[in-house]
Specification:
heterodimer, A: about 350 residues, mainly alpha, 18 helices, about 60% helix, globular, B: about 230 residues, two-stranded antiparallel ribbon
């Protein structure tokens, strides 16, 4: 009896020997489902053009993935949904006024350079959607840093933009409406010199929470993102500690660390710590970042303690970019990309003790 | 008989020289294979013109320093050879710098700026001096310098062409496509790293294609929970 025969009769499978039916594609499609309310709200808020931006982002991500896999001769894995999630996230973090080639380029760069060149799903170092977003932010700053006030039902985006351009006396009105998300206003301090009370210059916390504010398509409604995120936590796909630590640290930093960007002066009362902290959480991309990007399974640490360190780092970098740095009003995307870079190091130092060994 | 052998010898020498010359272009391309001299490669390749003049300056310094160092190779003491090389290279860099300032348009000089004096510390030049010119004859060092310089020139033209085309929508300052919206990132620092990395990956993939990749081991699929339930039922 030769050894070859023995081996052929033995069925050798690697562990795990029993597994859940739930696989990558199930998780990815549930993530898509969790993002859908925020996406629909974005369309309702900003008009049909926002829907076109999201659809173009999703389709080009899927097409880029399929083309690459066809060229490389590997199995085409569109149905696993990871490219769709990437495209959807790209669409949701872009402003609703961008020309349609911007989501196309962002999705293409995110999927091809951010993911496939590193070896595909599971091998990428950085969150593909954020790679795409960062690329277009630097490539087309004139489009991506703009944002528009929400378009309420019944009026198309272009008409409102036209009204604004004609109504304003020159560039000032144009700029306020087109150029300033709540965070950008605070960064530039453009409205600081107007009113007596600082809080009157900003949208209320309630408006920020509901999302009837300018911003990227899918990032404005904290409420719907929270619902989607809590659903994913309930399903067990993401660790609740990550968004909790991320948003909590951001709140504490904004509320209690004094920075020069809080506008004060003789006739201006600084916003209360409560307001400013809530403002930092709900204005901008912190909620979508904390629930849907800092929890990406591929590019964040494996252990729970590692994920907490990751979220802490994200929040601190975000706060530093927003409140201390010059030039950038928003730092969530860069903070997550930077912490993605640090993920292997975090993983190394949070390695759990091997079962059965003694702690040294 | 002897003349015949001499001719054969000369032919072999010529073939050798040709090999030395082409080696610097493809097999040992300074940018894509040796990955040397990246500072100018990344910094000035914003437009085709900049890349061209950078490579011309580097090549002229490389050829001249190769010749001089090869001439002096028997009198340079082994212990202090690097300072000697640097002095020779720095002299030629100064000449190249002053010549370019005298004869090239102001815009190109301003764009190349500090990177022309920085040719002194370009690894390609010091590397060829150390690895080749210090050990070979004058003619061979000249050929080696020309080949390596041409390889450097082609690499820089490729990178700067891609970056100018995508980042400004132009080639040699002429607009290529009317409706194209230039992506600023490509003429900024991240664009340099991206283009460099992508081209490097492309050439590595071309080379890897010649080698046979071993097949991955096939792993049997684990049993799913429902299958297990079915089996037990």
């Amino acid at each position: 009896m030769s050894q070859g025969e023995d081996l052929s009769r033995l069925s050798v499978a690697t562990s795990p020997h029993i597994r859940e039916e739930e696989d990558i594609s199930a998780i990815m499609w549930w993530v898509v489902a969790a993002l859908t309310p925020a996406a629909l709200f974005g369309v309702w808020n900003f008009g049909w053009y926002a829907a076109a931006v999201v659809v173009v982002a999703v389709v080009s991500a899927a097409v880029a993935e399929a083309l690459w896999q066809r060229i490389c001769g590997t199995a085409v894995m569109i149905s696993d949904g990871s490219a769709v999630v990437t495209g959807l996230l790209v669409g949701l973090v872009l402003p609703p006024s961008v020309p349609l080639y911007v989501p196309m380029v962002a999705s293409g760069v995110g999927v091809l350079i951010g993911k496939q060149l590193f070896g595909g799903l599971g091998c990428n170092i950085w969150n593909p959607a954020l790679v795409g977003r960062a690329f277009v932010q630097i490539a087309y700053p004139q489009h991506v840093t703009l944002s528009v006030w929400p378009v309420l039902r019944g009026s198309s985006l272009s008409r409102v933009l036209q009204d604004v351009r004609h109504a304003g006396d020159g560039s000032a009105a144009h700029e306020v409406v087109l150029g300033a998300t709540p965070l950008a206003e605070q960064a530039v301090g453009s409205l600081a010199a107007t009113d007596g009370v600082a809080e009157a210059m900003y949208p209320s916390v309630w408006a920020l929470f509901l999302g009837n504010i300018p911003g990227s398509i899918g990032e404005t409604s904290a409420l719907l993102l929270l619902i989607g995120g809590l659903f994913l936590i309930w399903k067990g796909y993401i660790n609740w500690k990550v968004p909790a630590v991320f948003l909590g640290t951001l709140f504490l930093f904004a509320a209690f660390v004094p920075t020069w960007k809080i506008p004060t002066g003789e006739d201006i009362v600084a916003p209360s710590w409560w307001f400013f902290g809530m403002y930092q959480i709900f204005a901008g991309g912190a909620v979508i970042g904390a629930f849907f990007m800092a929890t990406d399974m591929v590019t964040t640490p494996i252990t729970s303690s590692g994920q907490v360190i990751f979220a802490l780092g994200c929040a601190l970098i975000t706060a530093l970019i927003r409140l201390v740095g010059h030039g950038f009003p928003e730092g969530v995307a860069y903070s997550i990309l930077l912490m993605n870079t640090a993920t292997p190091v975090i993983d190394r130092y949070t390695r759990p003790r091997t079962y059965g060994t003694v702690k040294k | 008989m002897s003349r015949c052998r001499a001719r054969g010898n000369a032919e072999r020498m010529r073939v050798d020289h040709f090999k030395e010359f082409t080696r610097g272009i493809l097999k040992e391309n300074p940018v894509f294979v040796l990955v040397l001299g990246l500072c100018p490669t990344l910094a000035v390749t914003v437009s085709l013109v900049n890349g061209f003049w950078m490579a011309v300056a580097t090549t002229s310094v490389l050829v001249c320093s190769n010749i001089i160092i090869s001439c002096l190779r028997r009198v340079i003491p082994q212990e202090i050879r690097i300072p000697c090389f640097i002095v020779v290279i720095a002299s030629f860099v100064t000449m190249a710098d002053l010549t370019m300032q005298a004869y090239l348009p102001e815009g190109i000089n301003r764009a190349l700026g500090i990177f022309i004096p920085l040719i002194v510390v370009n690894c390609v030049i010091l590397g060829r001096a150390e690895a080749y010119a210090a050990k070979h004859s004058v003619v061979r060092s000249l050929v080696d310098g020309l080949g390596t310089g041409l390889g450097f020139l082609l690499a820089l033209l490729l990178i700067s062409g891609v970056r100018e085309l995508t980042g400004s929508g132009t080639l040699l300052g002429l607009q290529i496509a009317r409706g194209y919206q230039p992506a600023y990132i490509m003429v900024m620092a991240p664009g340099a790293f991206l283009v460099m990395g992508l081209l490097l990956a492309f050439f590595n993939a071309l080379r890897a294609r010649r080698q046979v990749m071993p097949h991955a081991f096939e792993i049997e699929r684990p049993v799913t929970s429902t299958e297990l339930k079915k089996e037990s039922a």
